Amino acid sequence: MSQRLKVKQILSDDKSHYEATVKGWVRSFRNNQFIALNDGSTNNNLQIVIDAENTDAALLKRITTGAAISATGQIIPSMGKGQRVELKAATLEILGDCDPEKFPLQLKNKPSLEYLREIAHLRFRTNTFGAIFRIRHSLAFAVHKFFNEQGFVYLHTPIVTASDAEGAGEMFRVTTLDMQNPPRTEAGDIDYKEDFFGRSTNLTVSGQLEGELGAMALGEIYTFGPTFRAENSNTARHLAEFWMIEPEMAFYALEDNMDLAEAFIKSLISYVLEHNREDLDFLANRLAEEEKQKPQQERSEMGLIEKLEFVLHNEFVRITYTEAISILKDSKPNKNKKFQYLIEGWGADLQSEHERYLVEKHFKKPVILTDYPKEIKSFYMKLNDDNKTVRAMDILFPGIGEIVGGSQREEDYEKLVQRMQEMHVPVEELSWYLDTRRFGTAPHSGFGLGFERMMLFVTGMTNIRDVIPFPRTPKNAEF
Ligand code: ATP
Ligand code: MG
Question: Which positions fall inside the Aminoacyl-transfer RNA synthetases class-II family profile domain (predicted)?
């Protein structure tokens, strides 16, 4: 038997007149003669030509959309348009039948994204999700490539943790206790001393605190793993299980942190533009079609590729929270009471409508907002000399809102403990974290990039459930 080749390779080669074996799934079968075969290596199908007259009728009947097949034959120049080469089948084998009456993905009726979410186990078989998940792979690879080239150490922080260290969100409890009949303390509470870890544990909401420990010895580290938030926010931008990239760097001030984040994001965009052009073009066309359905004034000014190029070649705007508040206060939607949450003045927490106004209407560029009021940010962020603001930075993206949250960390032991007390963070429980401030503390910074938010931006998809293979959201953990 000849060598099995991937469709992508056959279509990208200039060669013809050689024998090859291909394996994949039938996308369509026309005129009892032409099979469009997809093997997942690319959205482009390989045309397989069958000699119907010399093929068993029973076999022909089994060539249905969705069936898995193997075919061997000559790769020859194609007479038809749409492809340069095709495979003239000498032998064809059905590896797995697919009942056309039952298979939910027939080409005739274009399924909606909502419907495809219900059959997420099969949606990989569509062009849209083929493109999305090949890009997701590339983007993950580009993350490691970037940090590897910068000399960062990939640190695996724990998934199961014992502290709500960050206070970042509600957590999922991890337990092996018998929930029908849990052990009780004398006071009648559930006794987690009896639990698997001898204490109450949960799934991590962020690897940052452990990441800081690594950075304070290895210099520059990053984590890239799943994080979990039991927040009941059923939005198109929140998942209960999502992947986050969290670099943490010793001796970095806030400005260095911003520079790194901007360079990092740009490198990811540049990588996919270079390596996933075919899939990006496919998604760009898809998006353009979708845009056409919208009323004129709601259509976006740029196509997907243009938007990626634009972000790649323009500097992010950097402004302080205080400057942002004054822009928002004087903005039309604020004056006309169009914002759901009106900006009354300094101190207000920014909602996604405000973030999007700044990015999409005012600056029309990615924006890095810095120096937020300490009250609306986490305890570990470095206090500025004004005693009111902290060295936080959020990166806001068009169509997405917050894509990165980060800060310079408070390295001063006394100040940090004071902030913890003010914010009711248990100092005792975090003594291991405070040790870095006791033993050779140093300025350091870091940030978290939500991988799926980045995926949304790169693919132009609008619902976060469509850029992760099996989304976990409130009331949904299927597959
Ligand atoms: P948001 O205000 O959008 O809820 P956050 O302030 O809770 O975000 P951080 O705790 O700073 O976010 O987390 C860092 C990054 O992780 C965010 O910038 C975002 O990209 C991503 N992120 C946060 N929560 C989620 C979620 N539930 N689903 C997917 N990505 C998330
Ligand atoms: Mg949140």
Answer: 133-469
Residue 166: the pLDDT is: 59
**Ligand 2 centroid from CA 392, angstroms:** 15
For residue 238, the CA-to-ligand 2 centroid distance in Å is 8
Would you say the pTM of this structure is higher than 0.85?
Answer: yes
Higher pLDDT, 83 or 467: 467
Q: What is the pLDDT of residue 276?
A: 98
Q: How many residues does the chain have?
A: 479
Q: What is the mean pLDDT of the chain?
A: 95
**Token pair of 74, please?**
């000559």
- Looking at ligand 1, which residue's alpha carbon is closest to its atom 25? 238
**Relative to the alpha carbon of 407, which ligand is closest?**
1
Q: Where are the alpha helices (DSSP H) in 340-412?
A: 352-356
pLDDT in tens, 3-59: 899 999 999 988 999 999 999 999 999 999 999 999 999 999 999 999 989 999 999
Which of 233, 264, 453 best tests ligand 1's pocket when mutated (most atoms within 8 Å of CB)?
453
Averaged over 324-330, what is the pLDDT?
Answer: 96
Query: If you ran DSSP here, which 8-state letter would residue 359 be given?
Result: I
Is 354's C-beta closer than 6 angstroms to any atom of ligand 1? Answer: no
The mean pLDDT of 92-106, rounded to a whole number, is: 93
What is the Å distance from ligand 2's center to 342 Cα?
20
Whether 23 and 62 have beta carbons less than 8 Å apart is answered as no
pLDDT of residue 334: 95
How far is the centre of ligand 1, averaged over its atoms, from the C-alpha of 446 (Å)? 14
At the topology level, CATH places domain 127-170+205-466 in BirA Bifunctional Protein; domain 2 (3.30.930)
Instruction: Indicate whether residue 211 lines ligand 1 (CB < 6 A).
Output: no
Residue 14, pLDDT score: 83
Architecture of domain 7-108: Beta Barrel (2.40)
Q: Do 240 and 228 meet the contact criterion of CB atoms below 8 Å apart?
A: yes
Domain 7-108 identical in fold to domain 127-170+205-466? no
* CB-ligand 1 contact for 409 (6 Å cutoff): no
How sure is the predictor about 170, in pLDDT bands with cuts at 50, 70 and 90? confident
Contact yes or no for 132/466 (Cβ under 8 A) = yes
- Ligand nearest to the CA of residue 240, numbered in listed order: 1
Helix 451-459 to helix 304-313 angle (10° resolution) is: 120
Beta strand pairing status for 85-96 and 201-203?
A: unpaired
